[in-house]
Amino acid sequence: MQLNTYLNYGGNCAEAFTFYEQNLGGKITMMMKHGENPGESRVPADWKNAVLHARISIGGTELLGADIPGHQPMRSAYLSLTVSSSKDAERIYALL
């Protein structure tokens, strides 16, 4: 059994996942835009480039995400990132 975290974004999912890939050593393994789905003709024009589903592997953990219409900021979900050195912690903290 595996439990994955799924994050909702308000239009910046691709930007966030690219940031995680470039700065946290992650690897984006899937990213599909709303305009690429089989029923894309029903997608509003301003959502065609928004992310329908994304997946990234970071340090052996899978993180999933999507851009969601009417997105609300998270109020009670937390992610904890563990690194192997103070140097890595300081570098990542400065980026965030």
Describe the protein in words.
With 96 residues, the chain is of the alpha+beta class. The protein is 23% helix and 28% strand. The chain has a 4-stranded mixed sheet, covered by helices on one side. The longest helix is centred in the N-terminal third of the chain and has 12 residues. The chain starts with a strand and ends with a helix. The relative contact order is 0.24. The mean pLDDT is 88.
Structural Rg? 15 Å
Which band does the percent of strand residues land in? 25-35%
In spatial order, strands of the major sheet run 1-4-3-2
Q: What is the chain-wise order of helices and strands?
A: EHEEEH
TL;DR?
23% of the residues lie in helices and 28% in strands. By secondary structure, the protein is of the alpha+beta class.
Tell me the layout of helices and strands.
Layout: E1 5-9, H1 13-24, E2 27-33, E3 51-58, E4 61-67, H2 86-95
Parallel strand pairs: 1-4
Antiparallel strand pairs: 2-3, 3-4
Question: Which characteristics define this entry?
Answer:
single chain; alpha+beta; 96 residues; 4-stranded mixed β-sheet
